Amino acid sequence: MTHMLVLPAKLTHQEAPACMRMLSQGAGGQNGSSTVVDASALTQFDSSALAVLLECRREVIALGRGFAVRRLPQRLRELAALYGVAALLPAAP
What backbone torsions phi and psi does residue 84 show, to the nearest 5 degrees? Predict the structure, then answer.
């Protein structure tokens, strides 16, 4: 069973702490074999979005689940590649 978490439209340094709390609560409160973060709504972001995704990944994996990201914006994929973390944010099928 896959559990879906959804990112907001805006995820910058200012929104990152609240977004991380929301994702942590969502990830911890659900059962399932994997978690997918849906980034399709994300239109305004900075590198903080990567930090949030990587922290969410860490928490999900600590719970023994798989992790993937759905519809990561191209610019954020490029930023992840630039920082060398793209492999940590696999695309969901």
Answer: 75, 25
Q: Reduced to 3 states, what is the DSSP secondary structure of residue 8?
A: coil
Structure tokens at 2: 């896959």
- Find the DSSP H helices in the chain: 16-28, 48-62, 74-83
Residue-wise pLDDT for 8-42, tens only, equals: 999 999 999 999 999 999 888 767 789 999 999 99
Contact 11, 19 (CB under 8 A): yes
The pTM is what?
0.94
DSSP structure class, residue 87: G
Contact 15, 46 (CB under 8 A): no
